[in-house]
């Protein structure tokens, strides 16, 4: 079991973000443990990291680790914190996400030199951009899971995938009359049919009704359930320009911080061509390690949270672990 404490931080922009701190229920007495900082992908939220964090703590037992998971300003609990401001604010992009991550490393209750930054999908680009901001944070390591950085001249395939995601989000249903109707609708559709059942339950957490992924919204036709992250906010994270910029800057980060790349066995989103380009040593993008999570696709955190934890552990600690 892990303990969870909830925090709220205010950024210089006036926007706030929610963060959870996780520690072992019986923490070790040793000093000098690592702090893992987890950032989520588009449309997700910080609690989707919890099974990965729990497994990671089990593997690293006695190493005195802690973990923080953060909600992007437009996602999860942060979206509710900023409800009165987001309407008048341009949709939050990767650049703003990066600024939030950088602010937390610089101003949060942590020591940057002990921090391992972990990103998945869209947040990998946010972490890379965060590492280029001044002052440069002396991170211990950077872990990129299924990175979507665009790092080669012929990058039209990833740009097209982003456009497909925007179209899919714009036409996706976003109102349900009851929790049962919502759960039944999701269980019949991709990507939720591939999720670990526990991650699915976390997404529909009911300690406070549907607190993580959804909220009750009053409309002209009555009270309905809607995603906390709006279509416009989710779509903004798929815009390709900041992912191209992150790809252009990755080589500088590789020269400053050990960067670990973790890919899914299925190249259902990040193609083999893109992977080879991201890890192109001739372009200065030298990875400290490259690994594969078996039996999963792009949404590895949602599909294989335990295997994801093993991949993170094996990248950071010299003693290799297995499920």
From TrEMBL:
GO MF, any single term: hydrolase activity
Origin superkingdom: Eukaryota
AB hydrolase-1 domain sequence ranges: 37-309
Keyword hit for Hydrolase: yes
Keywords: Hydrolase
UniProt keyword annotation of Hydrolase present: yes
Protein's recorded name: Alpha/beta hydrolase fold-1
Organism, as annotated: Mycena maculata
């Amino acid at each position: 079991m892990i303990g969870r404490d909830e925090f709220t931080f205010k950024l210089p922009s006036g926007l706030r973000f929610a963060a959870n701190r996780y520690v072992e229920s019986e923490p070790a007495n040793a000093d000098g443990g690592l702090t893992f900082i987890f950032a989520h992908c588009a449309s997700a939220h910080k609690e989707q990291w919890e099974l990965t964090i729990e497994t990671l703590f089990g593997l690293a037992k006695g190493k005195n680790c802690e973990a923080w998971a953060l909600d992007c300003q437009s996602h999860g609990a942060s979206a509710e914190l900023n409800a009165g401001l987001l309407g008048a604010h341009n949709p939050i992009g990767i650049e703003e996400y990066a600024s939030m991550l950088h602010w937390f490393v610089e101003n949060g209750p942590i020591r940057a030199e002990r921090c391992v930054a972990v990103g998945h999908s869209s947040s990998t680009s946010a972490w890379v951009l965060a590492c280029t901001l001044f002052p440069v944070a002396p991170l211990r390591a950077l872990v990129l899971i299924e990175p979507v950085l665009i790092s080669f001249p012929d990058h039209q395939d990833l740009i097209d995938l982003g456009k497909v995601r925007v179209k899919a989000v714009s036409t996706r249903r976003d109102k349900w009359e009851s929790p049962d109707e919502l759960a039944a609708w999701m269980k019949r559709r991709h990507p939720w049919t591939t999720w670990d059942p526990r991650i699915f339950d976390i997404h529909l957490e009911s300690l406070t009704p549907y607190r993580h992924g959804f909220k009750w919204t009053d409309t002209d036709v009555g009270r309905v359930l809607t995603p906390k992250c709006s279509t416009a906010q989710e779509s903004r994270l798929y815009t390709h320009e900041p992912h191209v910029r992150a790809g252009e800057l990755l080589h500088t980060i590789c020269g400053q911080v050990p960067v670990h790349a973790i890919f899914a066995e299925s190249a259902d989103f990040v193609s083999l061509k893109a992977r080879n380009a991201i890890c192109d040593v001739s372009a200065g993008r030298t990875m400290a390690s490259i690994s594969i999570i078996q039996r999963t696709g792009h949404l590895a955190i949602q599909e294989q949270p335990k295997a994801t934890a093993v991949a993170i552990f094996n990248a950071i600690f010299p003693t290799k672990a297995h499920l």
